[in-house]
Amino acid sequence: MSAPTDTTTGAEPDQTDLDAAELEAITRKFGNPRTTIWLVLVAAIGGYIMMMGMGTALQLRLSVINEELATLVFSRATSLSALLMLVVVPIVGALSDRTLSRFGRRRPWIVGGYLVALLSFFVIGNTTSSVVIIAAYIIGIASAQAGFNAYSVIPVEGVPGNMRGRIMGVMGLCGALAMSAGAYIAGALVDISTVLLMTVPPVLAIICALPLLVLYKDPRHDREEIPQGGTLDMFAHMFVNPVKHPNFGLVWLSRFLAGAGMAAFLSFFVLYLIIRLHMTPSDAGAMAGRLSLMSAPVSILVFTGSGWISDKLGMLRPLVALAAVIMSVGLVVAATSTTITGFTIAWMIFAIGQPMYLTVDLALCAKVLPNEADAGKDMAVFGLALNLGNVLVPAIAPTLLGPASDNYPLLWGVAAVLCVVGALLMPLVRGVK
User: Fold this and answer.
1) What is the DSSP string of 315-337?
2) Which InterPro entries does the entry link to (predicted)?
3) Alpha-carbon span 280 to 273, nearest angstrom
4) pTM (two decimals)
5) Alpha carbon distance 139, 1 (integer Å)
6) What are the residue boundaries of the structural domains of the chain, listed by start?
7) Domain 30-223+233-428 has CATH 1.20.1250.20
8) What is the pLDDT of residues 32-89, one digit of tens each?
């Protein structure tokens, strides 16, 4: 969405004119962006509690059932679910781009994904069968991710580019606070009710999404406005060609490497507290909440500061690279720690790098999208960069951790190397600061 060239003077419009034209076009189609921002942020609170809290809830649920098998079952559940998401999420993104419903393109997929997730997690809270838990988690988290990805397209298409850095920063802040809230909720409910442990996060996601679902102007699109072609054409263009769009490919690869580092740290730290530091499941859940709460003020500063810098200075690549390096330092400290004090220091370092990365990385993804009409599908493909890490890391982690499931120096050392490699890719991205 850009203003046309001034043909009377031959001069190119300045950035202010371009921003004003984009604002006008988005307001006409999707409603007032400032209203959209508030609706998106409210939905982010519950959505992030679900997406970032279910892993902790599942670890605690499995530890209550059988601590010795918890790591193996958790790894299988998370790796298989992420593998399914590799297929489901881009398909749902492409289908949402092509949805002609009178309820809009994104709304039906958010509602459907969240409701299926709630039902699946309810099943986990009512069974002790590892097979049933794995199957229900695969369906539930894939559905939740599909709904969340449909939601995450809204700040891309309904908010002007010069506002996205700040909203992504606040969304990331919601994610950091949601991690703390999710850990506290899980720690508080693990000894009270396994059903509530598994269902409160998706219920909160649905409640927080209600204002967005009701008030956001998610317009019905005509056939001329959606990506053209039939089902076969949709599948043929499901993924972006990295040779034709090298910036997209490089940013995707960097995101995958950093995402693998995040998955190695955040998916296994509760089990680290239980197995390596010998905490009970309830104590580990409470400690996870305290760690998240301790890092929240730092995350607030990093999210808001990095979002402001990226908007004001247009700096994206250097901040993404710096964030990846900081995460690698946190992983190295965690890999060498043997006490809760050492791990707390590692957590605080990681709490600087991760929010910075998630804030600026999303803005960078939006900058390198090949085609606005395919925004839902392409953002879903970017989401796969993180999900693929969630496939490979849990699958490889049991081997790296060893027979006793306690070789965290190796697991987190490898994760640190991946983050550094991701940072080294940033100078290769062209045309973006």
Assistant:
1) --HHHHHHHHHHHHHHHHHHHH-
2) MFS, MFS_dom, MFS_trans_sf
3) 8
4) 0.66
5) 37
6) 30-223+233-428
7) yes
8) 777 888 888 889 888 988 887 888 888 888 888 887 778 788 888 887 887 777 777 7
